[in-house]
Amino acid sequence: MGIVNINDDSFSGDGTLDVEAALHQAVQMVIDGADIIDVGAESARTNRKAISACAEIDRLAPFIEAFSAACKKLQPRDEFQIWPPLLSVNTWRSDIVEAVLKSGKVDIINDIGGLVDDTNARLCFEFGASLLIMHTVGEPKVPHLTQRYDDVWETMLEFFDDRIARARRIGLSDNQIILDPGIDFAKQRDDNLAIYRELERLGAYDLPVLMPISRKTVIGEVLGIDLPADRDAGTISCLVRGLVAKADIFRVHQVKAVADSVRVIAAIELGAGYSSSVSSRGG
Prior knowledge:
The protein is α/β, with parallel strands linked by helices. It has a single domain (2-254), classed as TIM Barrel. 43% of the residues lie in helices and 12% in strands. The chain is built from ten helices and eight strands. The protein has helices spanning 19-32, 53-71, 94-101, 119-127, 152-170, 189-197, 217-223, 232-244, 255-270, 272-279, and strands at 2-5, 36-40, 86-91, 108-111, 130-134, 177-180, 210-212, 249-251. The protein has a six-stranded parallel sheet, covered by helices on one side. Strand 5, helix 5 and strand 6 form a beta-alpha-beta unit. It is globular. The model is unreliable at 276-283 (pLDDT under 50).
């Protein structure tokens, strides 16, 4: 899952308000092997004010149309890439969710609000989209620097028990529900490391698991690196951990580096058949 930010205050410094520039980023990610593009028009940073719903739609709508058209001119990198690539919208407001789903060109809603009520799930059911449920505490765009857990896993599993049950009651099938442990959202360094360490526990739900690994604050804290763009080596470490835990989706900025890493690991695990099939296409 490649990350595209149509904003000017992305924490990783790769955001842009130029829709054409954002489209170019997304197309390059698809060429590099992205199966999903996750586009957001508002930074999740809590030291930035929320933008208006109108501003969010004005940024998203032209990108969604342009991306759909651009993908028709592309070819898959190899037989393993999901094609056509899926489009995910990263948001939390239900009016934005409804507007983008009405386009008929959005496959996934990445609900960074933690499904505070059933509205976004109902909209996904109505339009046949998948719902990515991220664990968090409290409202989006509000700092949670003092949040503490007696046991982060106990809290998170209780959260997912509730949200999954609600999504299923509304009518979403299991292949429409994706889980995200919400690394760095209302969590401190040790909480994040505990989640990575025991990630296999999410497998008990038998649902797709997204690993948010790219340039995370916890990587910077472990390595002493302030600049997010310098944390890509740590990102690959988290990728390897996620693959061992059988996570399904990896949300990243540097798609090519991660896609190439996955190819090499797959070749090691699966043998010559995989590597020769890739190399025969120039990979």
